[in-house]
Amino acid sequence: xxxxxxxxxxxxxxxxxxxxxxxxxxxxxxxxxxxxxxxxxxxxxxxxxxxxxxxxxxxxxxxxxxxxxxxxxxxxxxxxxxxxxxxxxxxxxxxxxxxxxxxxxxxxxxxxxxxxxxxxxxxxxxxxxxxxxxxxxxxxxxxxxxxxxxxxxxxxxxxxxxxxxxxxxxxxxxxxxxxxxxxxxxxxxxx
Length: 191
Known about the structure:
The chain is of the alpha+beta class.
């Protein structure tokens, strides 16, 4: 298993804010050797239509999914999607395994030490996106629920969890992405 360390205001793993697309792709290929049986992965790269001077690119191989936002051709946000189904990557922040700790517990760890903005102000725990201003992290998950609601079958029967999902119980509880200088289902780091 490969550990990928989130470094606030710097990057994720060996990926660094300020890198070009070519540098990101080359770094990902080099990083992939540790999770792809000693071989470099061939990454699929999808590019969104540019909006102003920003472009978003998605990089994926069989074991990982990264999202990078470029501004003036330099990475200003680096994100990683939850790699748990692949069992190859272990993503940590301050030694905390960010994709295995329930979202509400992870965010509570930052309350009081960071300014947190969320997209659902009426109830902090029901948000799908959290931005940690001082840390420069953004977390995202598909839906927000209280822990007690996840345990209530009447409330979860209508949720879109397919029977073939490997970890259906995690779909709404764990963050899915992280972005650096931003971070959930995807976690991200932003400049």
